[in-house]
Amino acid sequence: MSTAPRLTALDAVHRALGATMTDFAGWDMPLRYGSERDEHNAVRTKAGLFDLSHMGEITVTGPQAADLLDFALVGNIGSVGVGRARYTMICQEDGGILDDLIVYRLQEREAGSSHYMVVANASNAQVVLDALTARAAGFDAVVRDDRDAYALIAIQGPESPGILKSLTDADLDGLKYYAGLPGTVAGVPALIARTGYTGEDGFELFVEPQHAEKLWQALTEAGAPAGLIPCGLSCRDTLRLEAGMPLYGHELTTSLTPFDAGLGRVVKFEKEGDFVGRAALEAAAERAATNPPRTLVGLIAQGRRVPRAGMAVVAGGQVIGEVTSGAPSPTLGKPIAMAYVDAAHAAPGTEGVGVDIRGTHEPYEVVALPFYKRRK
Hints:
With about 375 residues, this protein is of the alpha+beta class. The chain has eight helices and 20 strands. The protein has helices spanning about 10-15, 35-45, 65-70, 125-135, 160-165, 210-225, 235-240, 280-290, and strands at about 5, 20-25, 25-30, 50, 55-60, 85-90, 95-110, 115-120, 140-145, 150-155, 180-185, 190-195, 200-205, 230, 295-300, 310-315, 320-330, 335-340, 355, 360-365. Helix 2 crosses helix 7.
């Protein structure tokens, strides 16, 4: 079995652009093309172009596709309208988070058969595929691995609607956040989704891999006058951190329930029938309401030292939590972190909180998430 990393359809493009490449979840991906700060700031002020072809697409079709997804996932997928998308999670029987997902309901291809696309994180795509396949037993539905059927290109930032409009006649003005519609972009058939992971307005374009280079070049040329530049995974991480968006393996793990992560709103107990993890999640919801465990908060550094995942959060000489993600924030001009801390220290403005950075307790301000919100 080959251990060589998988290459996206845009691999040659990244190398021609001089990208620094890295192995991410078994894929060779661009970490950065030039300056991470410049790439981050381009997305905040102009536009950035990302290759996200490592994400895991799983198609679920059939007369009982909605019933299967309602049973397998914590969200109410049966209530998602055609052309809309929903953020949700797939949990274990004990309520632990296997992955966070976006589920798109696509146009029906045949009468009486619903059509959904589940998008999983690259590191969990096989786990999610295996879980959905196992949970499909007894349902009139088909689960299909479509990871090789799509390349995924994202354009994110305030200039992205204008850039994309110049290449498509699809109704972008009518396309709401968390919705998707089929269209043609620069002559390439695409599913155009208004989603993202940066805190900015933007679009994710699902296309056949053979068309990826043509679409990337067209977006690059159309976006150049507006300041669009290619962006790697490194700035994607600082963008999502500023926007307070969780990353699987950091803020979300199998040892946490959605309620532990402050994302209990994605669990829909009101939907009909049982779903995997329901009993455990009902107990977790009760615990969170009466005796909350650690709470996910934002931390802003008073000094210059950067906190990293796994570092202890301290107060009064005691460990009160743990950093899950940390980085310098280009927008705030200071190091920031997300951390789980004891409820007693979770209120914004709590005094005396620090992070143990190699034996020194660096002072931090506790703030509510997100650190950054775009002006609508």
